[in-house]
Amino acid sequence: MAAEKDAFLSQLNKIYAGYVGGFAVFVVILAVLEQMGVPDRVIGYLFVALTIGVYAYIGILSRTMQVSEYYVAGRRVPAIYNGMATGSDWMSAASFIGMAGSLYLLGYGGLAFILGWTGGYVLVAILLAPYLRKFGQYTVPDFLGARFGGNAARFVGVIVLITASFTYVVAQIVGVGIITQRFLDVGFAVAVFIGLAGILVCSMMGGMRAVTWTQVAQYIVLIIAYLIPAILMSVKLTGVPIPQLMYGVALEKIEGLEAAMRAAGQVVPFHTGAFVTPTGAFSMPAAINYFALIFCLMVGTASLPHILMRYFTTPSVREARQSVAWSLFFIFLLYFTAPAYAAFAKLEIYQNVIGQPIASLPDWLQNWQLMSPYGTPWINITDRNNDGILQLAEFAIHPDVIVLATPEIAGLPYVIAGLVAAGGLAAALSTADGLLLALANALSHDIYYRMVDPHAPTKRRLYVARVLLIVVALIAAYTAGNLGADILFLVAWAFSIAAAGLFAALVMGVWYKRTTNTAAILGMAVGYIVTFGYLLWTEFAGLHFMEMFGTKETITAAYRQYVGIAAISAEAKAPIQALLASPDQITAGPLSGWLFWADSAVARNRVGARLWGINNIAGGIFGVPLSFLVIYVVSQITPAPSKAMQDFVESIRIPRGGVKLVDQEHAVD
Question: Do 223 and 322 fall within a single domain?
Answer without folding.
Answer: yes
